[in-house]
Amino acid sequence: MRQSKPPATIAGSDLPFAEVYERLRSIAQRERHRFSAGQTLNTTALVHEVYLDICAVREHAPQPRDFFGYAARSMRNLLIDHARRCLRPKHGGGQHHTGLDSPAVDAVQLDASQALEVDAALAKLAEADARAAEVVELHYFAGLDLAKIAELLGVSERTVNRDWRVARAWLQRELTA
Amino acid sequence: MNDTYARLRALFEQCVDLPEGDRIRWMDQHVTDTGQRIELELMIAADDSSGGFLQRDVMVHIDQFGVASEEEFKPESLIGRRFGAFQLQRLIGSGGQGTVYLAERVDSDFDQTAAVKLLRRGIHDEASHRRFRREREILARFEHPGVARLIDGGVSGDGVPYLIMEYVEGEEIHQWCETQTLSQRERVALFAQLCDVVAAAHRALIVHRDLKPSNVLVTSAGKVKVLDFGIARLLDEDEAQTHTAVPLMTPGYGAPEQACGGAITLATDVHALGMLLRVLLTGTPPPTAPGAALPLPEHVAPELRWIVGKACLQESERRYRDAAELGDDLGRFLGARPVLAHPPSRWYSTRKFIGRHRGGVLTTMALLLGILASAGVTFWQAKVAREQAQRAEASRDFLLSVFEAAQEDLPKDTRPTPDVLARAAAKKLEGDTRLAPAMRAEFLGTLGKISYSSSDYARAVDYADRAIATLNAIGDTDSRQHLGLEVARVEALTYLNRYDEGDRALEPRMNLIRAQDDEVAVDGVGVYAKTRRRTGHLEDALDLAREAFDRARRVHAPDSNAVENAALSYGFELLNSGQTQEAIALFEARRAAWPTHHASPDRNYVTLLENLAHLKLKVGDTQAAEQLMRESVQLTKRIFEPPHELIATTLHNFGVMLAGLGRYDEAEPMLREAAGMYEALFGAHHSQTITAIGMQGAVENKRGRFANALPYLLRATTACVEAKLDSEPACAYNWQYLSVSYLKLGRLEEADAANERNMQLRLKLYGEKNPEYAKTLITKGEILVARGQPAAAIPVLDTALAIFTDKGQAESLSGANTLSARAKALAALNRDAEALEVVGRAEALIQRVAPKDEGRRLDMLVTRADILSHLGRTGEAREAARAALKLESMRATIDTKQWQRIEALAR
């Protein structure tokens, strides 16, 4: 069970709430724009927006660690969703669209499968070293810098730096192994 | 951190900053394991490199994949493709959740049209797959004429989840109202129809979560049809992770708790229904910002304004509890009776203000809901679990979800148990004095259900007591909620062997409980049947069980678990009163009907199998019985985690059956495991523990190890005396086994004393015409023969046989035992010819009902040899004696002198 830290107001800290909020919001808007006309609407992203709109005005605004964790998770899900779409075999018999045969597309496909591996590796890391995995989520996915993460997690900056360095090397090793 | 990782991390940190030459030397010195060395080198290399996936901003990747995949999905490209038994024909529409196609069945001759919905979200991992399957099963089980049925569902090879649903032609409800130019009253009447449909789903523990005009159609016949019931939950990917999950919802209809990750309750649908009613009444779409609900225009009747207001309250616990309550209030409006909803009072406004400015109340509520709703168990399930019918299932669902969630986050030994969660929730409840009493009682009742589900009956009683006290304190003594809690309390009491207390508590309340035809009455009558039986009122119990079965069929859907439970109980009472054939017929009908009513086997099915197996054994069909038992053991192990009462019970029952079939080596470990599990769960003085311990003694008896049996049986009977279990069937059995041990050991006084206790107990429990009582007569007869009073034994044994024959159970082990005892009595009276004839009948019967029971065969051969030798037919006697000697493995079951006599005869 995930435990929340005791309540602390967003306003009272100097965490870049607004910045991450904007980042999420812009993604949400772009997503909606990209899949316009109700065709392949990305609900996850849309819901983010709804969430932010509604909860921002309510009295029990999300607590910082929950909020950033949530932001990171959204980004992670989004990345995975997109990567999977990229990799999904074409429906209707496996014929490739000619436009998608270019080397540039291949590079994307390679990265996309790596994205899924990163995701899996991160899940594995979370089992072995929960804090390091959280640091990766917050830094890489939510875009928080390491000093802010230290503040958020209530540990020293040195610790977060070490976590990040180990985690990055470990994940990279998972991908090459 | 696991050890391998921790070691790798330590090594990495110690050497990563050393200059390369030093580092290699350091590694040579400190890292001897080759595998570890390779991993470490890989990490160092990764640390040096500047490239890699993580180096680039995640936004860049997202955009890049997004562009590449943008053109990929064209809904039309899927037309012609097959999902399940259906082939996609044309696109009907697409939206947030996915794309919907009209499809036709291709695997059969008859035409069937359906709507196939392809869901946007892929399902790639096992956990979400499992959740998808489980939800789908729950939905598939629910059928209602007002709901588009879920026909099938699955996940295609490339991870696209799909649902096949009944195709409905109709007009969206708000459009229908406009095109038909319905009056306000007609609109309300139509909407009340919708409430009925949703209420039926609520009773089946299904919450819609996404009610909106496009999901509510009206057919040309003017009937409401609701689409996509419960589909939103199938899609809720974050649900099993944390209560702050954000589910799918439609702005404008979604409730605040959906937006902010609160617990989804029945009241969530009530909110959406309220918004929908508002749309029907005003003809304009709902406001999208929550809390910004505009007052309804003046032309709307004030009662309707209050009703919409109450349905759309921010705090879910102050809304109508479910669709039925909302529908009832609308019915009152239509019938020109006063409605429950009322305009906001000043008190309410003040309270609202306090709520807004004191975070404490809300935080506590959120935490409590969070604990109860942990792992995505929507609280409504626990709350509605008040309905006995669904209790087992809802609780199991709760447990399963908790375990599933816990599995994802924590190692097994640190997972919180539901019990721990419930206790934490209770503590929170204790601390918050600002909760309304009815609400507090509700919570306590729910916690009681959770404890009940985890076999912690003492705590369940305690929670029920506290909930009842809470209601009493506000002057509520006779409400259905109060009565429901009383019934739940007594039910838990029965599991603690406190039958008398439970029986006394229910007796004066039965009139009130029966006053309505609802689930409280079904439960109440059912539980009362149990306490009546356990206090020795067998006739009452049978009548009550039949009444509960009838009531269940009136109150609940014919395929509901409530009806299944009631049928089981009724069959069990039939069995207890010796009406075996009637019970078999009832159970076999339920078993045959199971697949048409249920998607998968569950706890009730296991019980059904076991009871059927028990009955089959009683009528001598051992093969069918064994197969049924094996199936049920496998099922329980698949459904529950040990130690669990049901696993213990199936193991125990199967062990008993195997022992009965003479397969002692297979039986013993099962019985031992079951006894250990029971003792761990309930303690030494519980009837289940006593049964299981006694059974081990019984098996020793079967093997002829009578001295070994004594410690088990003395322990069991002593526990019976200590716990004053003077109407406990398990104790009767233990006295019986004990008397057999003593009899075989030649301690006849003690054997008789033990059998006397057995007789008294059974007479009280079953009455004098019952086969269970007849069994004590067999032992009585045997003891009389052993004590040299064979003439007295004959009428006793004849009485026993008459009872068995009367109840259709002469063709059984008990029947064989009676014949065998009778043969010995006749032989002892020198009525050799008659004795020989009875021996023949006994042997034939044993051959039919227990062909592998070598102990009994040996016993009969010995008796035969004795009689023949007495008659001077030495040749035949020698033959019988030699046949007996071949069963040497069972020689321990007869006494040494007999064996020596046989050896002499065989020469």
Q: What does this molecule look like?
A:
The complex is a heterodimer of chains A (177) and B (907). Chain A is an all-alpha fold. Chain A is built from 7 helices and no strands. The model of chain A is unreliable at 1-13, 32-61 and 89-106 (pLDDT under 50). Chain B is globular. Chain B starts with a helix and ends with a helix. Chain B is 65% helix and 5% strand. With 907 residues, chain B is mainly α. The chains are: A mainly alpha (177), B mainly alpha (907). At the A-B interface, helix 1, helix 2, helix 3, helix 4 and helix 5 of A face helix 1, helix 3, helix 4, helix 14 and helix 16 of B.
Q: In what range is the share of β-strand residues of chain B?
A: 5-15%
Number of helices of chain A: 7
Global Rg of chain A: 18 Å
Largest β-sheet summary of chain A: none
DSSP summary: helix tally of chain B: 41
Summing up helix and strand content along with how strands pair, one would put the structural category of chain A as: mainly alpha
Quaternary organization: heterodimer
Looking at the structure, what is the overall shape of chain B? globular
Kindly state the number of beta strands of chain B.
9
Strand order of the largest sheet of chain B: 1-2-3-4-6-5
Structure characteristics:
heterodimer; A: 177 residues; B: 907 residues; mainly alpha
In short:
The complex is a heterodimer of chains A (177) and B (907). Chain A has helices at residues 17-34, 43-56, 64-87, 103-128, 130-141, 146-153, 157-176.
Strand and helix layout:
The complex is a heterodimer of chains A (177) and B (907).
Chain A: H1 17-34, H2 43-56, H3 64-87, H4 103-128, H5 130-141, H6 146-153, H7 157-176
Helix pairs in contact in A: 1-2, 1-3, 3-4, 3-5, 4-5, 4-7, 5-7, 6-7
Chain B: H1 3-15, H2 20-30, H3 34-48, H4 58-70, E1 82-83, E2 86-94, E3 98-105, E4 113-119, H5 126-141, E5 150-155, E6 161-166, E7 171-172, H6 173-179, H7 184-203, E8 216-218, E9 224-226, H8 231-235, H9 256-259, H10 266-282, H11 302-311, H12 323-334, H13 346-357, H14 359-372, H15 379-384, H16 388-409, H17 418-431, H18 437-453, H19 457-473, H20 480-495, H21 499-506, H22 510-514, H23 519-534, H24 538-555, H25 561-576, H26 580-597, H27 603-618, H28 622-639, H29 645-660, H30 664-682, H31 687-702, H32 706-722, H33 729-744, H34 748-766, H35 771-786, H36 790-806, H37 813-828, H38 832-849, H39 854-870, H40 874-885, H41 896-906
Helix pairs in contact in B: 7-10, 7-12, 10-11, 11-12, 14-17, 16-25, 17-18, 18-19, 18-20, 19-20, 20-21, 20-23, 21-23, 23-24, 24-25, 25-26, 25-27, 26-27, 27-28, 27-29, 28-29, 29-30, 29-31, 30-31, 31-32, 31-33, 32-33, 33-34, 33-35, 34-35, 35-36, 35-37, 36-37, 37-38, 37-39, 38-39, 39-40, 39-41, 40-41
